[in-house]
Amino acid sequence: MSSTDFLYQDNFTEYFENYEEDEPPQSYLSYAQIASLVLQMVAFLLGVPGNAIVIWIMGFRWNKTVTSIWFLNLAIADLIFVLFLPLYIAYVIMGFHWPFGKWLCKANSFIALLNMYASVFFLTAISLDRYVHLIQPAFSYKHRTLKNALILILLIWILATVLGSPALYFRDTLTLPKNVTICYYNFHPHDLDLIVLRHHALTWVRFICGYLFPLLTMIVCYSLLISQVKKSAKLTSSRLFWTILAVVLGFFICWTPYHLFSILELSAHHSASFHDLLQDAIPLSVGFAFINSCLNPILYVLLSKKLSSCFSVTFSELVKHTLWEVSQSTTVSDHVQNSMSLQLIEAPGEQPLEERSR
């Protein structure tokens, strides 16, 4: 493998040191890769029980509401991802040797991208849902139903699957000398121009669809909310408002370095000046991105009112308390809708207002 081939490895595979034909790709881990590995282990150890608790509470203990199913699907996306993390952790520990076969190589990268797209799309949908619920209460009263929310959730999963599917096509394995197998993006065996083109295309699609557009949408939503909701005290005192804000900020704090260094990585096709920086920055940014998958249950605990009043309660009780407050949260538009209900006669067969406003 030539010294330029490592430039076309996906960020989730990490980078190899330059090596000769008779040498394995990497016989040791750098400090940055070790730090990334620690973050991945933390994501797995905390993410599996944390997200499982959220799914159990939201999916099996309580009645479904529009708000609760958003958070339920966020937890499902994160749990699916962290369950695949041991494969990648083992890959790094074994010196970037992939013994699990081609299809698990494809599936592992696909699941990572599916999690990223699904998470950011659900956060965007939650932000739009809050905006419509608060600013357009009449529209929300008619259309914000559990059925419509489930349809939107299905569309989000389909879109995330489509955007993540290139990993299923391009991801491949390659056996090197000394029986070392790597899992990498095989954009083309020989055509360097096509390799660069496909790498650029997938990176920019990932950045625009999985980061920039959702970020701008959420900035616009919350800016309009702050400027248009006159009773801002009601808005900012809502447990739901602060929970959504914390989850959104957590996502973008964790994923911003990954996307920025992915864009910077594209310049490595034309110049090796960023090689040393990317050698350390990419593993760390991947580790921070992965840690987001265990972050939401921790945020639910930190936001719980019970945390400051009683330290003897269990983790699951703290999560349950915050999620209960979120699912039952009273917002400005709830008061607006209650006043509207005094003037409107509900059509036969329509869902009660109290259930539709959740």
TrEMBL record:
<dbReference type="GO" id="GO:0004875">
    <property type="term" value="F:complement receptor activity"/>
</dbReference>
<keyword id="KW-0675">Receptor</keyword>
<dbReference type="GO" id="GO:0007204">
    <property type="term" value="P:positive regulation of cytosolic calcium ion concentration"/>
</dbReference>
<dbReference type="GO" id="GO:0005886">
    <property type="term" value="C:plasma membrane"/>
</dbReference>
<feature type="transmembrane region" description="Helical">
    <location>
        <begin position="34"/>
        <end position="58"/>
    </location>
</feature>
<dbReference type="InterPro" id="IPR002275">
    <property type="entry name" value="CML2"/>
</dbReference>
<feature type="transmembrane region" description="Helical">
    <location>
        <begin position="149"/>
        <end position="170"/>
    </location>
</feature>
<keyword id="KW-0325">Glycoprotein</keyword>
<feature type="transmembrane region" description="Helical">
    <location>
        <begin position="239"/>
        <end position="261"/>
    </location>
</feature>
<feature type="domain" description="G-protein coupled receptors family 1 profile">
    <location>
        <begin position="50"/>
        <end position="300"/>
    </location>
</feature>
<keyword id="KW-1015">Disulfide bond</keyword>
<comment type="similarity">
    <text>Belongs to the chemokine-like receptor (CMKLR) family.</text>
</comment>
<dbReference type="InterPro" id="IPR000276">
    <property type="entry name" value="GPCR_Rhodpsn"/>
</dbReference>
<keyword id="KW-0812">Transmembrane</keyword>
<dbReference type="Pfam" id="PF00001">
    <property type="entry name" value="7tm_1"/>
</dbReference>
<dbReference type="InterPro" id="IPR000826">
    <property type="entry name" value="Formyl_rcpt-rel"/>
</dbReference>
<dbReference type="InterPro" id="IPR017452">
    <property type="entry name" value="GPCR_Rhodpsn_7TM"/>
</dbReference>
<comment type="similarity">
    <text>Belongs to the G-protein coupled receptor 1 family.</text>
</comment>
<keyword id="KW-1133">Transmembrane helix</keyword>
<keyword id="KW-0297">G-protein coupled receptor</keyword>
<feature type="transmembrane region" description="Helical">
    <location>
        <begin position="70"/>
        <end position="98"/>
    </location>
</feature>
<keyword id="KW-1003">Cell membrane</keyword>
<protein>
    <recommendedName>
        <fullName>Chemerin-like receptor 2</fullName>
    </recommendedName>
</protein>
<keyword id="KW-0472">Membrane</keyword>
<feature type="transmembrane region" description="Helical">
    <location>
        <begin position="110"/>
        <end position="128"/>
    </location>
</feature>
<dbReference type="GO" id="GO:0004930">
    <property type="term" value="F:G protein-coupled receptor activity"/>
</dbReference>
<dbReference type="GO" id="GO:0007200">
    <property type="term" value="P:phospholipase C-activating G protein-coupled receptor signaling pathway"/>
</dbReference>
<feature type="transmembrane region" description="Helical">
    <location>
        <begin position="204"/>
        <end position="227"/>
    </location>
</feature>
<dbReference type="GO" id="GO:0006954">
    <property type="term" value="P:inflammatory response"/>
</dbReference>
<keyword id="KW-0807">Transducer</keyword>
<feature type="transmembrane region" description="Helical">
    <location>
        <begin position="281"/>
        <end position="303"/>
    </location>
</feature>
